Amino acid sequence: MIYYGACHCGSIKAEYETDKPVRLRQDGCGFCSSRGVKSASDPDGKLQIVSERPLIRYQFGHKTADFLICPTCGTYVAAVTEGPLGQVAVINVVGLNIPELSDEPVDFASLEGESVEGRMQRRLARWTPVTLTEAELR
Predict the structure, then answer these.
(1) Contact 7, 76 (CB under 8 A)
(2) Does the N-terminal or the C-terminal CB of the chain have fewer CB atoms within 10 Å?
């Protein structure tokens, strides 16, 4: 199945492809809980993100991923990190306004106390391979 989404203003568009049933996750960190984030990923899936403008990249905590934020509307759409086979990402189905997924139930995930190594292993095992295209700075 292919799911299409975009940020609030439409500057960032995403295409998420998966053959598995989508299981949404929600973690209790301040960043995600304050934004109502529901995350989805599939290591066997495909993700394309295209932004008409250079993205805002926010890092926090261990600085192991870039959280991608629209520079126009401020919506958090995805997080990306670099793996040995290229970039992988997790999407925010709420931020991308994916109607087929936004009302699905979520599994709560507590990431408190996770080591940097454990966090990277989890992300590389679970996140989706991504092709990220964004406009150049002018």
Answers:
(1) no
(2) C
